[in-house]
Request: fold
Amino acid sequence: LSRKEVDEGRQRIVSMDLKSGQVQIKNPKGGAGEPPKTFSFDLVYDWNCTQKQVFEETALPIVKSSLDGYNGTVFAYGQTGTGKTHTMEGVPDDPELMGIIPSTFRAIFQHIEGSKDKDFLVRASFLEIYNEDIRDLLSKNSQNRLEVKETPDTGVYVKDLTNFVVKGVPELSNVLNVGKKNRSVGATLMNQDSSRSHSIFCITIECSARLTADSEAHIRVGKLNLVDLAGSERQSKTGATGDRLKEATKINLSLSALGNVISSLVDGKSGHIPYRDSKLTRLLQDSLGGNTKTVMVANMGPADYNFDETISTLRYANRAKNIKNKPRINEDPKDAMLREFQEEIARLKQAIEGGGGVPGVGG
Reply:
């Protein structure tokens, strides 16, 4: 419980069994004989767990897979004010409190520094979905709206989205910080700095390696989406009016669309999956039932007055757990930037060795 909830005399209605991965929730308005509802998950964390523990057990396996050429997604879902942004970002400079995103930065470059006979190229993009508009948080004009496109080769992508090539943790952290300054946040009664948009921080990792000294280099490309969803919320609790209310309506619509996609995937009877019902579900299309390894972190409030929202989050996560994805390694894709760089280097070397000098460079 938060300090505010303790001061208000709120009761905790959620209990967790970390060994069995079970969560029990008791209805505060139910009778004495009403049993608690039980939900089972792959992993469960209570208020005593550490940020490091959450990262190493949930996100690190996905990060390692993306370094091997798989697509991966980690996203935090839950009621507003339950700690989604803390889970994803935390306190970046504090080893004990840093969240999944800064911990991911460290893990990627520790792996790269320890790899031999491999070339890596890492690039990052950062976008938000605000009132169903896609904004590039790294653009000079972050208010510009971008379009979602799809091709048979690359799948769903955002046209004209800025990508920065990064060479280490400080550069990657700088990209995150620049984007955060442009992100839409606002105060509600539930949270002073409530995220008013969904954000997707995407890290693309290209790796080139030769199986033998004489063989041609093979390129694998992993894409890692780190997603901080805006919180589901009730206007009566957040006191949302004006712009806050409009934002909340759009947030709840896109989260509802996400729920419908999850239900359709789990149901198995529906031939149509409504990915196009929102920008969020369109961009997460591969993460839900597609070519991606995905982890969903469900954040919830354990206080009695959050019963309806908490049981909704538990049901949502319980459905999502049953989605079956089909991840595969992305080998030698046509749009690998590393391939272009290698070809350009080879061309320049050939020009120098041929005695003609480098094209475009004067004496």
Observations:
- The first strand starts at residue 14 and ends at 17.
- Residues 242-267 form the longest helix (26 residues).
- Residues 186-194 have pLDDT under 50 and may be disordered.
